[in-house]
Amino acid sequence: MDLASVLFKLNSHTPKILGSERFSKYAVLLPLLQKEDGIHVLFEVRSLELRRQPGEICFPGGRIDAQDIDERDAAIRETVEELGINKQDITDVFPLDYMISPFGMILYPYVGYINNPEKIQPSPAEVGEIFTVPLSFLIHNEPEIYRVSLKAEPEENFPFELIPGGEKYNWRARGMDEYFYRYGGKTIWGLTARILAHFIELIS
């Protein structure tokens, strides 16, 4: 390969997250709604009939499909399907920082306002129940944060002979913070709590 070909390839390349084509891509919506005592954040409890993470607390959302225009469109579509509302009932949709999980997933979170919350009719196939938390509570109550260590475990046939130190190689310690919010006997944690904490930090 000559230099001109190499430079042409480099000039034609648009940078992205390395390996992102193999990542699962999801979009979620953090729904805001107005109640008598102020703005609330809406949460779902996943149906116990679901195979993945039954009974866990989350925001509306799911995998980005080929027919979705973009990540924002996917977040709105999933919210419409799960809460049983019209697309027109969701306004003022803004992006938050997207997240890359250590488990091969890119998550695109958005915030949106639900105009007519009385119209909400959750899909029983996906949603066990919904509840709301006052935004004022979340602003004045910081999350609990706990550190989780991720241990490196090379597979059996790992070629230790090719790396300095061999089997005694000093793997770099890795870890992640898990966030927890407690409200009314319910625990909001995991990626949902991390998105929530980012949103609260952003508006505060």
TrEMBL record:
Swiss-Prot/TrEMBL cofactor(s): Mn(2+); Mg(2+)
Coiled coil: none
Source organism per UniProt: Neobacillus bataviensis
Domain Nudix hydrolase span(s) in chain numbering: 23-154
Molecular function per GO: coenzyme A diphosphatase activity; metal ion binding
Gene3D superfamilies associated with the record: Nucleoside Triphosphate Pyrophosphohydrolase
SUPFAM superfamilies in alphabetical order: Nudix
Keywords: Hydrolase, Magnesium, Manganese, Metal-binding
Database matches in PANTHER family: MITOCHONDRIAL COENZYME A DIPHOSPHATASE NUDT8, NUDIX HYDROLASE
Protein's name in the database: NUDIX domain-containing protein
Keyword Magnesium appears in the UniProt entry: yes
